Amino acid sequence: GGEPVELTKLDPAHGERSHRWTQVLPGGKAVVFTVGDRTSPGDYDGAKIDAVRVDTGERKTILTGARMARYSAAGFLVYQHQATLMAVRFDPVKLETTGSAFVIREHVGGEMSSGVGFFAVSDRGAVGLGEPSLKVHQLGSGLNLSQGADAKAQQQDNERDQAFHGGASPLGVR
Fold it and tell me: Residue 28 pairs with which residues in a beta bridge?
């Protein structure tokens, strides 16, 4: 209940034209969102992911060259750049990333002119994926973020091994 309040405000001096694809972070004290730029209105691959604190309005840029970020309970911010699904460790209280971003999967569908990515992250850490050729109503494959590890990820990064796991299912849940 209660009266709605504006959480984000466009900054025309910095060329902002839209704020979209919001997600309230755990605890409800901050929100992440995609910031669209006036210089590339039909392409969100150059967009930023910002966060705003609900209580103070303090705003912070988290990522650049990213769109449609989603927080995973496994402690990662999952986002899309072009047709590549990426992730980076993220502290939802400090609103800071740690470590290097890494590829979850290439060739993930999306629509650059709106900034939507054809993926979803569940509260339990499962990621549902859509191929680039899918229509919005079709269901893609899944990847679980909370159990096991895929061999390629093990070779690339020990931290990634602890969080991203290769079990795939139609709904992205084991």
Answer: none
Which residues, other chains included, contact 13 with Cβ-Cβ below 8 Å and sequence gap of 6+?
none
pLDDT in tens, 31-70: 999 999 988 888 888 899 999 999 999 999 999 999 999 9
pTM: 0.75
142-144 and 84-91 strand pairing? unpaired
| Terminal alpha carbon distance of the chain | 36
As given in the structure block, the two tokens for residue 172 are 């992205």
* Cα-based torsion angle of the residue sequence 98, 96, 148, 169 in order, rounded to the nearest 10 degrees: -130
Q: Using alpha carbons, list the distances in angstroms from residue 135 to 33, 45, 97, 104, 132.
A: 24, 20, 32, 21, 8
User: DSSP characters for 14-81?
Assistant: GTEEEEEEEEEPTTSSEEEEEEEETT-TT--TT-EEEEEETTT--EEEEEES-EEEEEETTTEEEEEE
Q: Is 152 exposed, middle or buried (0-12, 13-18, 19+ CB in 10 A)?
A: exposed
